[in-house]
Design goal:
The chain is mainly α. It has 18 helices and no strands. Helix 5 runs antiparallel to helix 6 and helix 12 packs parallel to helix 14.
């Protein structure tokens, strides 16, 4: 999955924390000063000041997220009042969204973004409407809500292609490729992903290049091309490590673990554990869930059913809590496979049926077909 706005690593912040927060407070004071004074150059001054502390806010949000929520609301009001640069709105909406997610308030984050989208429809701001369509589509895809994801990604894609933003165009191609892969159209998916890779490479957006390489690898894996799968996974991991991109490091390690699981199980378990040792931030929820799920599959392969069941039940509980419906369906199917292996046909049938019905209802066509085959078999 592609997260287009990376969260900056703040290791250096702790060394200069007092100085940094003092500077940040001074900047906020400056903003309110401009806000309260009636000056001819007021919008220009606010615009300059907002840009000055925009990146700084991203570094402090992990330590004081509630404060950042208040600050982002202030910034967004000023941007709207004085009709400032749309890129500032994108930055602050993304910061507010990721902060809400870090506080385990994902539903509130999605509601906030949907509400902002309605405002952009009314104002006729195509740039910001494209951004919210793509960002909502990306997050619905992460949540396994494929029908909703398809609606927003396709709408955002058509707007992005007509825009002048090469970044949005590349983002739209990547999301369209990811969506089509889920829908099982690997040929068209690969077309969009290769185009996204080319555009991101031209813009030298390393974190995005790494994420697209991961998606391309998944396509090659689905079509049985092991050599290209491994090549793109290793390229993705190298780029992610070079740019210290934790999200894509975890995604690359996860996919490498899956790749090695069947014929190099010792390598797979080492990779999965190495990746899980890097987790801990709620912002990495999807990567953590995917890693745990594939670790469960590893133990299922080895017929260690008790350990596998424990992991799948943990994943199921988290997915239910966050309403990650695709994860719920896959967890049901995984538990059904364990009950099937244990010759508990009644429970296996029950969980296969749950998995199929849920996957079918949310538009996860590929999974639904697989679960239906399992259901017919049992």
């Amino acid at each position: 999955m592609l997260k287009l706005i990376c969260i900056i690593d703040i290791a250096m912040l702790f060394r200069y924390k007092t100085l940094f927060i003092t500077r940040f407070c001074m900047v906020l004071t400056t903003i309110w000063f401009f806000h309260s004074c009636n000056r001819v150059n007021q919008p220009d001054s606010i615009n300059e000041t907002l840009q000055m502390y925009d990146d700084s806010a991203k570094t402090v949000y992990r330590n004081n997220p509630e404060w950042i929520l208040e600050t982002s609301d202030t910034a967004l009001k000023l941007i709207n009042t004085y009709n400032l640069n749309d890129s500032l709105t994108v930055n602050w909406l993304t910061l507010k969204f990721t902060t809400l997610v870090s506080l385990d308030r994902r539903d509130a984050a999605m509601t906030m973004l949907s509400s902002e989208r309605e405002k952009f429809i009314i104002s006729g701001n195509d740039y910001l409407l494209t951004y919210t369509d793509l960002y909502l589509g990306e997050n619905f895809l992460d949540d396994g809500k494929t029908k909703l994801a398809g609606k927003f990604i396709r709408e955002g894609y058509h707007k992005a292609i007509l825009s002048t933003s090469q970044y949005f165009i590349a983002w739209a191609h990547n999301l369209m490729g990811s969506l089509l892969r889920v829908e099982g159209d690997y040929k068209q998916s690969q077309f969009h992903l290769i185009k996204a890779l080319e555009l991101f490479e031209n813009q030298n957006v390393l974190h995005a290049v790494g994420a697209v390489c991961n998606n391309i690898a998944l396509n090659y894996e689905a079509t049985g091309d092991s050599a290209k799968t491994l090549a793109y996974l290793l390229k993705s991991l190298h780029i992610a490590e070079t740019s210290a991109d934790t999200v894509n490091i975890l995604a690359s390690l996860n996919n490498l673990g899956i790749f090695y699981r069947t014929y190099k199980p010792d390598s797979a378990i080492f990779i999965f554990n190495q990746a899980l040792n890097k987790t801990g931030n709620p912002a990495f929820l999807f990567q953590i869930l995917s890693l745990k799920f594939n670790l469960g599959n590893y133990y299922l392969d080895r017929k260690e059913y008790k350990r596998a069941k424990q992991i799948f039940e943990e994943v199921l509980y988290t997915c239910l809590n966050y309403q990650i419906l695709a994860g719920v369906a896959r967890s049901y199917n995984a538990l059904a496979m364990i009950y099937d292996a244990e010759n508990n046909n009644e429970k296996a049938l029950n969980y296969y049926l749950r998995a199929y019905r849920l996957a079918d209802s949310i538009g996860e066509t590929g999974d639904a077909v697989t679960f239906l085959d399992n259901l017919r078999y049992i």
